[in-house]
Amino acid sequence: MKDEILLKKVAARIRTIRIEKGMSQQELAAELDYEKSNMSRLESGTVNLKLTTLYKVAQALEVSMSELLDVE
Amino acid sequence: MKDEILLKKVAARIRTIRIEKGMSQQELAAELDYEKSNMSRLESGTVNLKLTTLYKVAQALEVSMSELLDVE
DNA sequence: TCATCAGTTATCAAATATGATAACTAAGGT
DNA sequence: ACCTTAGTTATCATATTTGATAACTGATGA
Fold first, then answer.
1. Tell me, what's the ipTM?
2. Where in the sequence is the domain holding A41, given as residue range(s)?
3. CATH code assigned at B50
4. How many domains does one find in chain A?
5. What is the pLDDT of residues A12-70, one digit of tens each?
6. Measured distance CA(B55)–CA(B42) in Å, rounded
7. pTM of the predicted model, to two decimals?
8. CB-CB under 8 Å, A7 with B52
9. Closest amino acid to nucleotide D20 (CA–C1')
10. What span, in angstroms and rounded, lies between the C-alpha atoms of B66 and B16?
């Protein structure tokens, strides 16, 4: 799988789970001490997240990192 | 879990699996088109890997990213 | 002793993530 | 018409990863 595809898929997974949990980007961002704009960027799949960023997102969504990476 | 601990754990996991597969850092590095020095750095747990780097390592080790993140 | 292999550490330039701010669109409700 | 909420996009400075090179240690074998 090409890198960009991976990033898109992980981003989509984050968005899906966030919506499942009934959270807005803003709410999720707040838990992470992010700006909503950065949350949007994160879900756009244009950014190559670092491990600790993934970890923080997973915690805020109350899922494991593996669930966020469960792509294909 | 604090960030540094997470990074240490993931790094340790990578090392463990690499050794299980009977590979040297050099061999693994070769598969990734890395320098062995960077492989060492990666396993030192001092670096906050990006998603695509984790992905490449997982592929070279023939495991899923989840296996590398299966910490704690 | 000498050479090789495995790994570590430091350093550098280049690329990129991160955090912040701002301006914008679009939808809903009052 | 106005306001709020949700999300997007662009831009900036700063920090950090990445890739490369080099010098080093320690162990093992000829």
1. 0.92
2. 3-68
3. 1.10.260.40
4. 1
5. 999 999 999 999 999 999 999 999 999 999 999 999 999 999 999 999 999 999 999 98
6. 13
7. 0.94
8. yes
9. B35
10. 15
